[in-house]
Structure formats: C-alpha cells, structure tokens
Amino acid sequence: MTTTTAKGSALSLTDFYDVESLYSSEERLIQSSVREYVRSEILPHVGEWWQEGFFPPELARSFGELGALGVTLPERYGGAGASYSAYGLVCREIEYVDSGMRSFVSVQSSLVMFPIHAYATEEVKLEWLPRLASGEAVGCFGLTEPDAGSDPGAMRTRCRKVGDEWVINGVKRWITSGSRADVAVVWARDEGSGKVLGFVVPTATEGFQAVDIKTKASMRASVTSELYLDDVVVPERYRLQVEGLRGPLSCLNQARFGIAFGVMGAAQACFDEAVAYVSDRPAFGEPLAAKQIVQERLADMLSEITKGSLLAYRLGRLKEEGKDHPARVSLAKRDNCRSALSVARAARDLLGGNGITTEYAAIRHMLNLETVATYEGTDTVHTLVLGREITGHNAF
User: Fold this and answer.
1) What is the pLDDT of residues 205-225, one digit of tens each?
2) How far is the CA of 9 from the CAs of 6, 12, 99, 102, in angstroms?
3) 2 lies in a domain?
4) Among the options 243, 321, 376, 389, which is catalytic?
5) Quick one: average pLDDT of 337-356?
6) 3-class DSSP state for residue 209?
7) Does residue 364 sit within a domain?
8) Per residue in 249-287, pLDDT tens?
C-alpha cells in the first residue's frame, strides 16, 4: 500500500492511526486495486476534464471492469458480494481523484442498483442489474425537483394508473448522469392514493427528456441534468415494490454512507498536496513547512482526516451488523463533509496564489465538496436529524 511518511518519522501521513489494518485482506485488496487504477488512469487527466466540464463516457465500462459498481450486490447480479466497508473504501479511493467520479459510482451503486435490487421483481433485477454492474448501462436517480430538495414530500411529479400501465408527469433537477442514463429510478406521487411510488424508467421511453445543466462551478467532471417526463408510460412490472418516502430515503441512506468514506479521500488528496507544496516552497529563507502557523494548519488537517477515517470505519462495521441507524449515517455524512471542506480550504490557502489554479487539485476539491456537503441532505438537514434524535422534537 502506498504511503507518505514524513522525514524522520515512522508514522504514515496517509493513515496516521493505521486504520487500514482494521480492514480484512479482501477489503484492502479491493481498495488497492481501485487506488492503482484511479491514480494511474484518471488522476493525470481529471483536472483537464473538470476544466472542460467533461465526463468521459467510457469510464462507465472501466468502472464496471474494475468491479467498482454494485460492489455489495450478489455475484448473480454482477456484483462482487463484498462488504459495505469495501464499498466505502472504493468511494474513498475514487474521491481522492475527484468527487464527480465518486458521484457517478455512488449514483450507479447506491441510488440505482440498490433500489432495483431491494424493491424490483426478479425479472427486472435480471434485466438491469448485470448491465449496470458492467457499466454497459448507466442509471440515474430522479428524486430532487426544482422546488423539492430537502423536503422530498413536496414533490410535484405525479403518476396515475391506467389499466396495467403507469403514466408519469413531472420535472426532476440536479440529476447526476441524467443525460447519459439508459434507465432512471423515478419517484412520483400517486394521484389516487397520494403515496410516493418508485419506477424503473428506461430513458428511451417516449416523453422522457434529459437536458444538461451547464452553469456549474462545482462537480464539473460529472454530468448533471434536468429530467422532463411528459406522459411517460411504464408497465406495472417496472413499479418498485415499496410505498411512501421510506423507499427513496433508504436509497439516500446508502449514498450518504458512501459519502462519509468518500470525502476523506478528497481531504487526503488536499493534505498530500499541501504537505508537498509547503515542503518545497521557500519563504523568508526557509521552507513554509518550517513555520509554526503552517505546522498548526497541517496538524489540524491531519487530525480531521484521522478522526473522519475512524468514524467511517466504525460506521461501516455498524452497517454490516445492521445497526446503521439513519441518525448515525447523518452524523457521519455531516461531520466528515465539514472536516473535508475545512481541510480543502486550508490546503487552498496554504498554496497561496497557486491555490486558485486548477493546475493544483485543492480548489477543484474545495468547490466539489461544496456540492457534496449539499446533496444527499444538507448540513442543516442532518443537524436537525440529530437534534430530533436527541430531543424527540421534529424541528423541520
């Protein structure tokens, strides 16, 4: 495993508390293979892709060949049957390179493959999961709307039953992979019962349209779209067997879990870059690294990464024991996003003027993490989830 060790120190700056030793050999092997691929094949190019606002379409199959899609699913559906911790480590290694790359994998695995595996019929599982696992097919998740983000219960997208089919109308916004997707998991409110229902919607269906959002200053190496559904008709067999917000919220819990791991990868990348920079950059006759204030910043950054890594590890084991209560996931998502953002901002500052150019990674990670801290539940939403757990009062 590649490590960075400070001069004169026996301690690894990439794993200060030796957290990786707590994982199984299989989990570390998966982590190592993903690390090797993304750092050799993606890292040299991702800054340019981000600058151009481009996500290479061939990466879907590359991630599939790597085994990074649907890691936890059974092998019969194309997964690896690996642990949730292994999935978390995959997210961490990919986000070391870029949050947009990890977002693609998170959406494919947690927001598309997970609900199909959990709630679709066996026929639909076999139709879509192997193709999604290989990267042959790309999926997207349609929950957020122009006026319904933190409050998914306010969704305006509607569905109605007509014979043995469902007709869906509505607009979804901020949808990762929307225009690249072959299939969408779409959530809509039933005009009859008022319940929220989920559907597997092939994007080639008449009335389905995806339009990319081009004005982003974040997640630029990721495709983000608006979805328009105009009398989109899907058969009953494509309806997911779950009712109410429990369905989409269970998916978000999966994605938030991966984020808690992933953002520590982005933080580590920023820290690595900052350490290398201040070690070489002279100021007043000596390296910046010799200055007390710089060392204080680096110590705080290392502390945040170490605490976040330990938190992610424990959350993974709790999830594998079936104890991943949503409030526990909220705490990890909220706090690790806070930590990662603080590390990225500190790195950008330590790089001085060079910190604002995409020739270095800090500004790219910092801007990406502004999005990560917002999607799959804002900092405020997760704070209120924790507050409700503490007090018993719902303050939403």
Assistant:
1) 999 999 999 999 999 999 999
2) 5, 8, 31, 32
3) no
4) 376
5) 98
6) strand
7) yes
8) 999 999 999 999 999 999 999 999 999 999 999 999 999
Q: Coil, strand or helix: which one is 50?
A: helix
Which of 65, 59, 78 lies closest to 131, judged by CA?
A: 78
Q: What is the predicted pLDDT for the residue at 3?
A: 47
Total tally of structural domains belonging to the chain: 3
Average pLDDT over residues 115-131: 98
Do 145 and 259 lie in one domain? The reply is: no
Q: Which pTM was predicted? A: 0.94
Torsion of Cα atoms, 296 then 369 then 337 then 135, to 10°: -130
127 is annotated as an active-site residue: no
Alpha-carbon distance of 175 to 216, in angstroms, equals 13
Residue 292 CB: number of other CB atoms within 10 A? 7
Residue identified by tokens 């892709």 is 49
Q: Is the pLDDT of residue 342 over 50?
A: yes
- Domain carrying residue 178: 139-244
Alpha carbon of residue 180 to chain centroid = 17
Hey, what amino acid is at 375?
Answer: Y
Minimal CA–CA distance to 205: which of 166, 177, 172, 154?
166
d(CA 249, CA 247): 6
Residues near 319 by beta carbon (within 8 Å), at least 6 away in sequence: 84, 85, 257
Answer whether 139's CB lies under 8 Å from 112's CB: yes
The verdict on residue 225 lying in a domain is yes
Residue 1 has pLDDT above 50, yes or no: no
Query: Which amino acid is located at 355 in the chain?
Result: G
In a domain? residue 335: yes
For 160: left if phi > 0, alpha if psi spans -120 to 50, otherwise beta; the answer is beta
Whichever domain contains 167, its CATH number is 2.40.110.10
**From residue 349, how far is each of 270, 277, 278, 335, 342 by CA, in Å?**
11, 11, 11, 21, 11
d(Cα 135, Cα 61) in Å, to the nearest integer? 4
Query: Which residues neighbour 323 within 8 Å (Cβ) at sequence distance 6 or greater?
Result: none
Nearest to 202 by CA among 219, 183, 218: 183
**pLDDT for residue 151:** 86
Q: How confident is the model at residue 5 (pLDDT cuts 50, 70, 90)?
A: low
Are residues 71 and 107 part of one domain? yes
